[in-house]
Amino acid sequence: MDKESIIDERLINRKFKIDHDNIQGTITFFGIYYHYFSEETLEIGDTVQIIGTHVEGLNVKKI
């Protein structure tokens, strides 16, 4: 298993708040930039949880 896969797995269930820095769909963890995607419309102030990873980024849901 490569290092990036290990880091991705560690992100599952991590929560973060949508703010001015990440509202455009990019978040940084461990010095790596990830795109995130949600089926819901997200707004500044929403808290989201990472529910999965895939090659194009992170799947998140509003909590």
Provide an overview of this structure.
The chain has about 60 residues and is mostly beta strands. It has a single domain (about 5-60), classed as OB fold (Dihydrolipoamide Acetyltransferase, E2P). Helices cover about 15% and strands about 45% of the residues. The protein is built from one helix and five strands, in the order H-E-E-E-E-E. It has one helix spanning about 5-10, and strands spanning about 15, 25-30, 30-35, 45-55, 55-60. The chain has a five-stranded mixed β-sheet with strand order 1-4-5-3-2. A hairpin with a 2-residue loop joins strand 2 and strand 3 (about 30-35). It is globular, with a radius of gyration of 11 Å. The mean pLDDT is about 90.
